[in-house]
C-alpha cells in the first residue's frame, strides 16, 4: 500500500497520473510543441518527463540529466547510488524514478522506441520493470526486440568478419551485480569504469555523482537494468574480447527476492556487493535450479579503519601509538596472491626438512614447479617476506631451478631493481617501463621484495642480450612502520645490499627537494655499492631527472647535477668510514659516472591535474623507450639509475 501510494504521488507530481491507464504513445511524444525546445529551463516537475523524452528522441546524452532550475540537487549522503538519502529535495527527482515512471506510463511501442534510443546513447535499459504491486515485475524483453548490434569478437578468424544480430536473441553470458544491505561501494560507478576503455569514459548506469543521482528513489528500487559490452576487434581498445551482458539490480536483495532469484537463474555469475558488518548476515536462499551461478562477494573490509587512520593522522596532537596500531590493523587485513604463495613456500620449507621418503614431502615436491609456471604466466613471486623479513632460501632455490628447467636453453636474464622511499612512485615507474602491474595504490604499499619475469622477444634479444628480464620491486626505505625500531637503518642497508647484489640495473628514486631524506637514501645506496666492491662489481651510474621536459634541461640543470655529485661524495666518505674502506674518497671512486653523458630527462607523470588526469604521453615514451635504450647501451656495465625529482 505504501509503495502504491508513493508511486501515485510521484506520477501526480510528474504530470503522468492520467497516462498510467491510457498510456503515452509514440505519436504524443513526437509531436512538436513547447517541450520540443530542450534547452529551456524547466520550472515544474511535470516538465521533467517530457524533457527526458524529447532529449532522448534527439539522441542527446544529457537526456537523463534533467532537473528543475529551482533545484540544485546538492544533498549529500554517505550511501551509494542505490540507496535513499536522509533528506529530500521537493523540486528534484532521481533520474531512475523518471525513467521508471515513463515506462510505466508508455504503451509497448513507445517502450520499444525508448529502449532503442537509450541503447544508441549507450544507456542501460530496463530488463525487469517494477510495478505498483511489489510482487509483480515486467520482463522487458519484447521491448528490446528491435535492438540490432554489430560487433567483432576476437574469436573470429577472419579479421574483416563481424556479427550482426538482434541483441534480445543473442546467446550471451549474463553477469549480474546486486547489493546486500547498505553499502558504501557504488557498484554502478564501478560498472561504468569497467565497461569504459581508458580513452572514453561512459556513464552507462546512473550513479550517485550524476545530476540528481543522490536524490532518494521513490519507485525505482527493484528495477533491473541491462547493458551490453560488444568488442570492436581491436585489442588496444576492447575491454573484453567477447560480448557480455551486464545486469544491475537497484535496491537491496533482501527486499527484492523475486528479482534476485531471476538473476541467479539467468546469470553465469552474480557479484554481491556488501559491507564488512554484513559478513555474518544470512544471504537470501535461492530456490533449487538446474545450475547455480558463480557467486562473487565484493566488500571493503582496509575502509572504515582507513578513514579512522586518516582522521588521526590529520590530528597533529594524535596518539602515535594508537595510529601505529590502526596502521597495523590495516596491514594485517590485506590479502593478496602473495599470501597464498607464501603459505606454499612455508609448507614446502617444512616438508624438505623431513626424510626423503616421507609421504608429506612427496605430496608437496611439485609446488616449486607450479610457482615457476606462475612466474612464466606473469604472476609475481615474493622474494622477501615483508612481514618477517625472511627469505625462504630452499623454496626460492627450488623455484628457480624448476624455472631454469622450463626455459632451457633460453635462460639468460637481466635483473632490474627499484629502490627508494615509501610511496615515491617506484612501482609506477616499473609498471610504465615494462607494462607490468605491481600494486600502486596509496593504501597498499609494497612490503618486502617481489620479482616478476618478462620475456624478451626474438627481435630484441640481439639488443638486450638476454632471454628474460627479471624485475624486482622492493618495499620503501625509511618506512614509518620501521622508523621506531632500533635496527631500522640496518634493515634498509640489508635490503639494499640484497637487491643491488642481485641486480644488473638498480633504479633509485630520490626527492631532491628533501635534503635530509636524500642524504639518508644516498648513504644506504652507497653502503650497498661499497659492499659490492668486495666482490669486484663496479657499476656505471646514470641520473634520470623527472619532471623536466625543457629541451635545454641538460644545460640548465648543470648546477643541480654538481650539487648532487657533491652530496654523493659526502655520503661516500661517511659510508666508507663506517665500512672501514677509507680509500674511497669520491663517488667516482666507486661508480663510473660522466657528467656529460650520464643524465637522462623525462617529463612529469600526469598530463594535467589528478585525479582525472591521464598519464603524460611524454612520461610514458621517455620512461619506456628512453630508459630501455639506455639499458641497451649500458647492458654489460651494471648500470645504476637514480631518479631525481627537482
From TrEMBL:
InterPro entries (UniProt xref): G_VLIG_dom, P-loop_NTPase, VLIG_GTPase
Disordered, as annotated region: 68-89
Transmembrane segments: none
Biased composition (Acidic residues): 73-87
PROSITE patterns in the cross-refs: G_VLIG (PS51717)
SUPFAM superfamilies listed in its UniProt record: P-loop containing nucleoside triphosphate hydrolases
Signal peptide bounds: none
The VLIG-type G domain, residue ranges: 410-646
Record-linked Gene3D superfamilies: P-loop containing nucleotide triphosphate hydrolases (3.40.50.300)
PANTHER family: GTP-BINDING, UP-REGULATOR OF CELL PROLIFERATION-LIKE
This protein's name: VLIG-type G domain-containing protein
Organism, scientific name: Cyprinus carpio carpio
